[in-house]
């Protein structure tokens, strides 16, 4: 038989290959964190967003067990391929998700909603300022996460971020 899987090494694995494998492994590990949170009972409760966690105790244990098995394979890949752990800064996640969502908000302005048909009279006067307000607040959160105070321009101060 060949070597034990944990002893397999690939010293000639290219950096591009390692980066591709590492990125997918990171994303899988990140997804497992979410699944484990669900298995531990997580439910989100916002104003318009509600999760209902109906996983039974048996399902919860099984999900945690499978996540452990997946992590064992990821650990083996990490050791065999020399994959480095990544630290994901929450402020970057806030910046990235907030910046990407801006487009979705813009596309709910009435000039873009018209692609679905004519909008009712008065909707633009009501909705568009609300969308602009939501965009402004989201941009403020993104600026805060980026280490800037909510102010704009030269008066915006740097916020202290923890290392």
What this model shows, in words?
With 163 residues, the chain is mostly helical. It folds into two domains: 5-81; 90-155. It contains five helices and no strands. The chain has helices at 15-39, 57-81, 90-106, 110-113, 123-145. Helix 1 (15-39) packs antiparallel against helix 2 (57-81) and helix 3 packs antiparallel against helix 5 (123-145). The relative contact order is 0.09. The model has no long low-confidence stretch (mean pLDDT 90).
User: Structural class, from helix and strand content?
Assistant: mainly alpha
The H-and-E topology, N to C, reads as HHHHH
> Helix proportion of residues, in percent?
55-70%
Overall strand count: 0
Number of helices: 5
Biggest beta-sheet profile: none
Averaged pLDDT: 90
Number of domains: 2
